[in-house]
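Quick one: structure for this chain?
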Amino acid sequence: MRRAREFVEKLVRIHRAVVWVAQIGIFALSAVLAFLLRFDLRIPPAYLGHLAYALPIWIVVKSVVFRVANLDRGWWRYVSVADLLRIVVGNFAGSALSCIAILFIAPAGFPRSIYLLDLITCFLGTAGVRIIVRMTAEATSHGRNGAAGKNTLIYGAGDAGVTLFREIQRNPKLEYHVRGFLDDRPDKKGVHILGAPVLGGVDQVQVLATKYNIVIILIAIPSATGTEMTRILERCHAAGVECKTVPGLGEVIQERELAGQIRKVAVEDLLGRNSVRLEENQMCSTLEGKVVLVTGAAGSIGSELCRQIARFHPAGIVGFEIAESPLFEIDREMRQAFRETPFYPEIGSIQNRTRLNEVMRQYSPSVIYHAAAYKHVPLMEAHVFEAIENNVFGTYNVAVAAAEYGVEDFVMISSDKAVRPTNIMGATKRVAELLLLALQNGRTKYVAVRFGNVLGSNGSVVPIFKKQIAAGGPVTVTHPDMRRFFMTIPEACQLVLQAAVIGVGGQICVLDMGEPVKIVDLARNLILLSGLRPDTDIKIEFTGMRPGEKLYEELSTMLEDTVPTAHEKIRIYVGNGMPAGDMVTWLDCLREICETRDVGRLVIALKEIVLDYSPSTHLLKRVIEPREGDRRAARRLPEPHTTGQYPQ
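Got it. Here's what it folds into:
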């Protein structure tokens, strides 16, 4: 085996020369063999002259044909069915042209059967040598990845699993020794694929892991649902086996090899999200060559929007952000990762109209993505006026500046909490949506995009759970029945860009967020991903619902009041907006209330603007118990803070 491997490596160094010599040898040998077969392995002396004429013709003509068809290029070790079809065509063309040349040049009496015999022997030779080289290369690679590698099973005996197995065999750097496949389809059990058996389904992981001393299982089912991934993860964990996966199509297309993208199972995999279909040509026409401004550019959504936008070659990206240090970090990242796209970091608040005007005058953006907002529900229940000032007045400032400076497209990031809101954050987002609908009467196209919680975003449950797990627990969940819609950051941002293309102005786009996920299940899965056992190694504690929270976000209303679009994951909300006259009146009213800091008037005003707003019990207590608040203010004592809660 060692000598065979060394021989293959020497051939690689002189690849082109070896190909030419091998092909000329095959052409000559097939010609001689055709004559031998025609005359029972003894060529009569009278036909040696015919062979002398035919031999150089076949060699020259077929060499030219193979060169024109690029059959003398490429690596034989990677020969495929498509290559074999090209070899068939090349041999037919070479034999046909050779036949014509022989008829004109060679002496009369050339046996006709020779042409067919030469075609057959030449095809067998040119195809066979390639197959032999590939088999030798795979055998030597398998030897390198054999006993020294980790005993491995591949879960999934479909196309992805077979492709992964092939790449593991070819790549000497991958230390996996594949003992077989796992697949839940009964008809595949016992079948051999590329020499490796399908040993059983995922329910037999524990038995097979013990029998074959399995160290790791590679999941090669990019289309697996969240439920399937969770079941696989639980079985692997119970068997004490490491578990890794290969990504879905959206990630695979960015790399050449599947095996090079093997990674640990992430919480995103447990959601079973399908790849987002993007209309990239339409996005290019919206973003290419234009200046794009992103507010909240250093946040989770804003920073990912900057990365996604940079793919479409804008003239520049203006990152508008009030947080200095995060803006510094995204500036460094963008300059390093997207050198050809200018990134302009600008510090400022959306509440400062003067600063907004400076930036708008300096850069004259054509597109604005408004991601700056206060979003944490319990925190905003305790800071109601700040939520209004930022989420409502700040949005109004940016939207009006967009109209004044001739911005073509304005896209605001909204929230599913704007549907029948029960908290200040959701109510302010709904008011901001109404403002955009009322402003839609000019050149600027205003679109709002609603979606749910974003996995991994700043302040989301996933980073919090990870920190609690790293500290040894407990993991705190507010309620055992708490459910939320989740999206990954890239998925949400890609759909935001897509919605901007679909929307025609004065619309609210609603993203399809799939099925809601129980927060306690998410916590259990994260504990499993950490290699620990829920309720045994890491405890889960329920702390009670926080101010302004719902048990579950409502999607039914959005579906009832929406219509489909050309994109399967985006719908358009068809509810009515607020007339422009009323909008100005209500903004003046809200400004006055914020100046007087009157919580009761604020709740009443929001109820009149957003008819389906239901204030939280926490907020109503602040309204109906003013004496307690006045007494504390008189003594200049802060409101009491309890663990996991905000002021009552």
